[in-house]
Amino acid sequence: MEPKGTFLLPPQASTIAPEIDALYMFIFYLSVFFFIVITAGTLYFAVKYRKKEGESFSLTSGLRHNTKLEIIWSVIPTILFMIIFAWGWKVFLQAHAIPANAKTIHVQANQWAWNFQYSTLKGIGNSNDLYIPVNQPIKLSMYSKDVIHSLFIPDFRVKMDALPGRNTTLWFEATAVGEYDLYCTEYCGLDHSRMNRTVHVLSEEDYAAFLADVVQPRKFDEIYQASCRSCHSLDGSIGTGPTFKGLWGRTSEFTDGTSLTIVGDVGAKYIRDSVYNPNLQRVKGFSQAMPTHKNSITEEEIQHIVDGLKFLDQPGEQPPSEQGN
Ligand SMILES: [Cu+2]
């Protein structure tokens, strides 16, 4: 159930919200208390010591100093301030120390949109609203492409600027499934108001479904940059491993004396084996073995790799899987 707000404050929908509200309400009621004491005192004394009918003008007494009174009005506020400081420090640390198990979502702000980026083993997904699982610490790692923006989720009681040229972070844990407002709270130009979006807090299952929906398998180029580039070149130079240039159609010779021409289904299967079981057949002349990528490359991505390698040497041609979307 979505939590309800109070007269003074919006709903508390994160773990930090009650902590921040308790401190806020302490300061608020303390201020109300002193407001009443001071205002009532002012009125009382104004009436009591007013110039009465028929009274002649007289000076107030020469009293200048009251040590007891001065100690009281110095010590009591000091104690109250120190309580607020210590309490504030404790909540500040809680709000800023990011739990080790927090899931990271990358946030890019620009005029005038939020872009939330979810990376999983299967690839990367994007959305303009924020989608998060309930009861899970979430870390937002933010930057801005242009001006200063600021991400504010009132119901979570969190706010942080997104800055150009610097990475900022923010964390929270949502406590109830539901939809919550998200604002850009730094005036950032003409369409600033278009940066008002929604946080969708989902159950674990719904979040998994969301990810499955939004995350696209990585394309050849992304996979190559992330996982293959350190050992395989595209320009024909030999690195830790053989170059990818001209790989499709090439005949590889193996350490066991056999060889294979990388074409057709056999070629596709060979590439899949090279990624998953590189020790099955070792290419001759390379001292280092290729590590398996079983846990970081999906079957769908293998297809992209095969297509990518096939079309590598045909400039202008696009592998079928990279057309359209
Ligand atoms: Cu903005």
Spatial separation of the terminal alpha carbons: 38 Å
The Rg value, from CA coordinates, equals: 33 Å
CATH topology of the largest domain: Immunoglobulin-like
Helix count? Answer: 6
Helices and strands, in order, run as HHEEEEEEEEEEHEHEEHH
Count of individual beta strands: 13
Q: Roughly what percent helix?
A: 25-40%
Shape: elongated
Average pLDDT across residues?
A: 88
CATH level 1 class label of the largest domain: Mainly Beta
Q: Based on the structure given, which CATH architecture of the largest domain is correct? A: Sandwich
- Largest sheet features: 6 strands, mixed
Number of domains: 3
The structure class reads alpha+beta
Question: Low-confidence parts, pLDDT < 50 over ≥5 residues?
Answer: 316-325
> Which compounds are bound in this model?
copper (II) ion
Q: What do we call the CATH homologous superfamily of the largest domain?
A: Cupredoxins -  blue copper proteins
List the strand order in the largest sheet: 8-5-1-2-3-11
The fraction of residues assigned to DSSP E strands is 15-25%
